[in-house]
Amino acid sequence: MTKKESKTKQAGDLRKRAEKKIHASTKSIRKMSATDREGKFDHYRSSVTDITEITKAEAEIALASFPTLNPNPIAEVDFAGQIHYLNPAAERLFPDLRQRGAEHPWLADWASLVLTIRAGGKKVNIREVNVGGLWCHQTLLLLEEKQLIRIYGTDITERKKKEEELNRLNRTLRAVSNSSQAMLRSTNETEYLNEVCRIVVEDCGHAMVWIGYAEDDEDKTVRPVAYAGFDEGYIERLNVTWADTKRGRGPTGTAIRTGKPSGCANMMTDPLFAPWRKDAIERGYSSSIVLPLMAGGRAFGAINIYSRKPKAFSEDEVKLLTELADNLAHGITMIRFRIIHAKSQEALRESEERYRSLFNAMTEGFALHEIICNDKGEPCDYRFLDINPAFERLTGLKRKEVVGRTVYEVLPDNDPYWVNIYGKVALTGEPAHFENYASALNRHYEVFAYRPEPRRFAVVFMDVTERKHAEEELTKRTAQLEAANKELESFSYSVSHDLRAPLRAIDGYARMILKKYGDKFNEDALSKFNTIRSSVHMMGQLIDDLLTFSRLGRKHMSVSKIDMEALIGEVWKELKIINADRNINLKVKGMPPSYGDRALIKQVYINLLSNAIKFTKHRNPALIEVGGHVDGNEDVYYVKDNGVGFDMAYYDKLFGVFQRLHSPDDFEGTGIGLATVQRIINRHGGRLWAEGKIDKGATFYFSLPSSHT
């Protein structure tokens, strides 16, 4: 019989003895009382566990029947840690094991392990040890007759690396989630940046994180704006630039300059990291990854993440961190937008207060009220404080009959619905805009209510009976069209209620005041009134653009093949109707088809062509050219005009939400149109860029992933 056959036979005999022991134990347990059986079952379960472990161990023994040929380390060690046997694999992997004995990492905590094995009574034990970066799974078999412990080792380094990578990715994913939550609740940009840095350090376990903004100064400085982690003065000594110089070719400058992730796998050896190597090593940094913060197709900053390990960032982790950086850039943009929006709202409120007194001279009805609440603080009535002559004419109610009295004293049958509406305006400051029908007068009124001060509300209304009759007639004649556009009308109605009402009212009243009293105003007063109307129109355009901009993120894309030439013809037909009085020459060159959401790409061309028409208003004729071509993996399209152009020095501000192109004052616009184009193209996975020269026109390009590759 060979040694292998002998080992296999020994393992089989051991299993048979174990099975007989289990069978005998089971028979004896059946004969016991319920109480006795409970205790016996505990012993039985323990026996099964021991036998199972023994069976596993014997299986390993069977696999290791030829220890000299086994590629895994096998050793026999006494209780004192002296080596009695090493197979060739163990000798090769751990050449100093025999000499060092229990002091070797492969026998880590040997004395404690021996005590545990001997005290526990278990013949088989398992554990994992790390020997200089090599992870080993050990099965330890107690050989009582020899007073030795036999160790079967298995290399599990790859498995441990995968586990570690998975844990790291989970932590990074948690950081992405937490940073997204921070974006939703943040209102202060600096606090938001520091919070994201803290999240990356704490959730991902990296040594240090800092965020820098790319300045447009002569030296192209990168200005640190936030950090978290172990710094010890490191950031103060950075002196980083994004110019193509020695201190700009490191990871940070490269990421900002190229708009792509960059990094340093080993700070000890990377020659491009030389300017910062000494400071980094002193603080225990070994590698880094830098992700650009993108907006408008260009990097406005970067987030730097430092690790204490070389080559610390896997490809999968970089993908997750890139998502985090994209969310961070979006969050910064949103916070800035909120601040600008708040300032715009404040300016609007100041304008309303400043010109409130002018409403007394309007031909529209005007009334000032104060809300009355019950003991629970709920609106229950309101009192008339003042009315204008137009109010008397339009309602038939006289000033002496209403001022100082409540609505239920004047109109006992008044519907509580109106008290609730006006109460909300007076208590929350939220304006209301609606139309109602006065049955007693058989007239329709359009009403705008706003709060001039807490617990008061003002109502401005006009007679719209004739308009309502015209609308009713139009509704009858266009029922089919209205059904087809039901969703669009519903949205427009909602926007009119929530956003446009205050602007329309102010513009309307300013227009009527100018019409009636304009000849009595001096030049300065007329200028101010025109400024008000211009600002209101600008704000209205801004609201429209912002609504379009915000809806893009929610719209589901329906991708299909697009005939670009047919799409241009469709858009141009619509725009020519609006600009029928203009002398505009459109030239269409090669337009390869592509794939995308046709409705969204149509919006791109509407915005770009409208932009070209607007900025060629002083050209006769206005020349506009559209075309496209296939460029490798991209379908590239352009819209070119001979308008006022722009200064390329301001290119980085061209696609900002509220930035204007270089243009004279008579070219009104909000800049949202270009931001909308950018967002649509980004959603398609493409790029947007432009070229221009003052008074020489501009060309806007965009790309879509090629359908020809």
Description:
The structure is a single chain. The chain is α+β, with helices and mostly antiparallel strands. The chain folds into four domains: 3-156, PAS domain (Beta-Lactamase); 162-338, 2-Layer Sandwich (Beta-Lactamase), CATH 3.30.450; 357-548, PAS domain (Beta-Lactamase, 2-Layer Sandwich); 555-705, 2-Layer Sandwich (Heat Shock Protein 90). It is built from 21 helices and 22 strands. The strands form five sheets. Strands 2-1-5-4-3 form a five-stranded antiparallel β-sheet. Strand 9 and strand 10 form a beta hairpin. The longest helix has 40 residues, at 315-354. It is elongated. Mean pLDDT is 79; it is low at 32-51 and 656-665.
Annotation keywords:
single chain; 709 residues; alpha+beta; Beta-Lactamase; 4 domains; 21 helices; 22 strands; 22% strand
Based on the structure given, which CATH architecture of the largest domain is correct?
Answer: 2-Layer Sandwich
Residue stretches low in confidence (pLDDT < 50, at least 5 long) are 32-51, 656-665
Our count of domains comes out at: 4
CATH topology of the largest domain: Beta-Lactamase
CATH superfamily of the largest domain: PAS domain
CATH class of the largest domain: Alpha Beta
Structural class: alpha+beta
The biggest beta sheet reads: 5 strands, antiparallel
Roughly how many Å is the radius of gyration?
39 Å
- Give helix % range: 40-55%
Number of strands: 22
Cα distance, first to last residue? 67 Å
Strand content: 15-25%
Given the structure, what is the number of helices? 21
